[in-house]
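During the second half of the funding period, the structural biology subgroup turned its attention to how the target accommodates small molecules. The most pressing case was iron/sulfur cluster, which had performed well in the primary screen but for which no bound structure existed. We therefore specified the complex as follows and requested a full 3D prediction, including the ligand pose.
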Amino acid sequence: MIATAPLFNRSGGWLADPGFGVYVHIPFCLHRCHYCDFNTYEGQDSLFELYVDALVTEIERWAGATRPPTSIFFGGGTPTLLAARDLRRILEAITRRMGLSPGAEVSIECNPETVDEPKFEALLAAGFNRFSIGIQSLMPHVLRGLGRTHSAERALESLAAARRAGVADLNADLIYGSPWERPEDWARSLEGVLGEQPDHVSAYALTVEERTPLHTLVATGRVRDVDPDVQAERHALADECFGKAGYERYEVSNWCLPGRASAHNLLYWSAGDYLGFGAGAHGHLDGRRWWTVKLPREFISAVARGACTEEGAEVLDHEQRGPEALMLGLRLASGIDVGAFNARFGDGCLSDRAGVISDIVGAGLLEQSGSHLRLAPGATMVANEVICRLL
Ligand code: SF4
């Protein structure tokens, strides 16, 4: 069966009404990659069943505000390390408790080693309609350097298997600018992935995060550090290749075919509300942000005791919400819709910054075009610096 494409706003622009999202964190991986600082653990297979039970219980007992989600995102970790029937149980718990908006996007992150055609079919039947596959690179030495254990062939096969199973909404995740990558390696990875015609590509510059094996390798001089100039060149090449192939860059690191932007990520970049379930998951409702206990065992035990799984929370006041929403919205290529932004966050946020905005526009790094305020096309790689000046 071919899954129908979700109907929710996928144009890639800032959303005046971002909808309502649900994030589910699956904190397990086959193996930890050298660069990864996510909340994920290897060798905890014995916890899978207990964790799924805990998630279902936690979702069923959610007593806070809720609406039928316009997007649901299973991330990790490697969600597809769990059996399709377990992922289905979690998804059914969400839809039982909250309903589901018509045309909602229901995404799941997949590792190439944990998916094949029957698994995609089972996940489609369970209700998932968008699949995001962690390809990262198609060059064996780059994959090895990153600590990825899948092969390039397996990565390409996972994209092809998704299509054979009837996946109509497919994302490929890539990483560029690692110390092991030569210019021709990146060009070959881009060419190979585009050959499979995914609907969406996320390509992120490798960052060396503290407390990772990669950080130790760099700090001890065994691997050279990443070079921002090289990464800017790789980003430009990706932009050129994707553009020629008909993809639009709608966010600093995300490209899609027309109408195939990620609804869930648009919700984040439009400062929307979402619930987060699972170990280390984050949620945000109307300016209140919270996060749950990080360790899977702690999460399971808290749920079993009927205790609160929240580890911490912060409440953003009106003065803080506007700048944060501005920071997120300017990552989108279309920027923010000024009228809609002011309607949601008050006009003080932008009017207080009129002087600095005018200076940055004058420097050619921001553009005011019609009702939109956005980064100038050449300012994409200095987005963080521009945003820092604004804040
Ligand atoms: S598969 Fe993803 S989440 Fe898991 S260790 Fe690697 S980078 Fe981290």
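Two results from this model are relevant to the next phase. Residues 29, 32-33, 36, 38, 40, 76-78, 111, 134 surround iron/sulfur cluster (CB under 6 Å). Residues 228-244 form the longest helix (17 residues).
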